[in-house]
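Protocol step 4 of 6: structure prediction from sequence.
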Amino acid sequence: MMKKLALLLVFGLSILVTFAQNKQITLEDIWKNGTFRPDYVPGFQSMPVSDCYTMISRSGIDKHQFSTGELVATILKSTRLSELSKGKLSVRDIDEYYFDDKEQKIMIATQQEMIYRRSSKAFFYVYDIAKDTLILVTDTTKGKQSFATFSPQGDKVAFVRDNNLFIADLTSGKETQITTDGKQNNIINGMADWVYEEELELSQAFVWSPDGTKIGYHRFDESQVKEFSMNLWGELYPEQYKYKYPKPGEANSKIQLFYYDLNTQKSYDLGFDTIEDCYYPRMMWSAIPNQLVVVKLNRDQTRMELFAMDLPKTDKKVIYVEKLPVWIDLPEEILFLKDQKRFLFTSEKDGFRHIYFSDYNNKITQLTTGNWEVASIVYIDQKEQKIYYLSNESGIYNRDLYVISFDGKKKQLLSSGNGWSTAEFSTTGSYYKLSTSDMNTPPVHAIYDKKGKQLRVLADNANLKKKMEDYHFSKKEMISFVTKDNVTLYGWMLKPANFNSNQKYPVLIYCYGGPGSQEVMNGMRRMNDDLWYQMLAQKGYIVVCVDGRGTAARGADFKKQVYRNMGKMESEDQINTAKYLQSLPYVDPQRIGIWGWSFGGYLSTLSMMKGEGIFKTVMAVAPVTNWRYYDNIYTERFLTTPAQNPKGYDDNSPIFFANKATGNYLLVHGTADDNVHFQNSMELVTALNEAGFQYEQFFYPNKNHFIMGGNTRLHLYTKLTDFILKNL
């Protein structure tokens, strides 16, 4: 009897183990059910004055002490928000919120609508903490607003509506219209045009002076920029959406720079040349009272200048110049010190991105050095003269938090040295939230003091880790190899959990590969895509990603060697990756596929056409197919203009190589893609048809570059998965 019981127990356990081993990830798990949704810290913000942070909970906006984690108060309860808004709002309706500089008011954005990648419009409310009152920034019947921003004193709000700049006085309720000539597809005030937003990361184009008496702003004259139009389907007669989109060699917006004086209630032209073909991607106030600084970039993006003006005079002093033989990547930060003598920025002028000081006479001091790169400056402690920054000094796959003194000494690693970290500091710099993951471990969000001591964990994703174990997730592995051109390339590989080195497996390569991008990293950044790769691994596929020449983290020479010939080396390196994989004993050399999105769709398509049949299956989502069709700021940065460099455009554009297409090809695009126009796919389809090449295509009506919303992502990844299972 005991033997029978033991046998039954063993049999039962074997069934459970088999069931666990066969627990399969589904597309619904990834894109519908949120089965593997990671934990995060919703609404986390450091408060502007106190050493506290806020988070959004079910009860409202909660205030916590950095030092202890103690809940100090619920600053705005969801029930109170509902009462004050007469039932219109609850905490679930908050799309964004932020404090004024004095920590006395909260700006709340609701019913937010995205315009383009970085711009949006919404209805804004201001909650006065002490008075327990809630008011609208402006009359909702006039339309939604963009970039509602407190004045430094917190008594006024500037915003953009209908291409004009306004100020709302929160005390009197008076609304002042600063500009009046704003007009759709013609004039924009205080807000960037499409191409500045997309490629120069400028969307809000106005800044308050520190004393709250002035606002500097951009005026974009788009009248000479050519329009692009697209059909929006769904009505009896489709609506045609038109907007200004400058393509390579074509005219840009004419920029004028102004400042508005709240005392005189007048705008003053800063006197920059409107004829010169150049860019003004940044405007900021320095630490010197009434000093406005403007960044100028020539059209070739090889020369950057900083001009300082001591208002009301508009005489311009050049305080910094940088000139390189190839493109300049704009520094993420230009930070002015309170001593009114120096400012900080990052530059690649020595071949790797590092931190520099400059005085106001262009005297430069380099702070960090080495064959590694600073990703960003995250905090400056001016009292203790320390700089906190993120870099990959511990390894090109990593991103760690470091601190260094102003004299370049006492550098200290504050994070693990083996992962990918981001940091958000308290206003005083006494504490920070560090979020760290590695390529096989989801993020841990924790609070640290400035010396790097962990005080508490806010979210550890323990439940997600357990699910990853239950579903027997495979481990990503780092790989490297040397190409026939003697270039060492790095990547990651994901094998099936039951991998057998004596078997031969099909491989799917994921590529992006655009200049300055990085997909091979020791962190979890694209969680849903990683889940999809795990699902494919469960189905018996190896998934690989390799960063080729032109990508980031390995210095300017490695990144910028693609200048004027974008696509050539990048496609060669994806082809070389396939050849390397063919040499591995566990890879089926006849079953290698490649896919990508955006630049990655361009690269997968071009690699297929130049790969002489090495790829059995290729998928491209929203690909550029001819760089003449893309925007000018991005494309000219790497290729210059078509007139200057016609071969650079044509020698690596897929539409000119349609007769070399091979294998199984799937082309996907959203018809309302404002970034990579549907035109790209239509031109490629025309060329493929002419070449007699058979392929599959799928288009998403009214979807933009991200192809999402409702059931769309689930549908898209079902399409991609089915194509792989059938053809690879």
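Step 5 (inspection) to follow. Confidence is low (pLDDT under 50) at residues 1-20.
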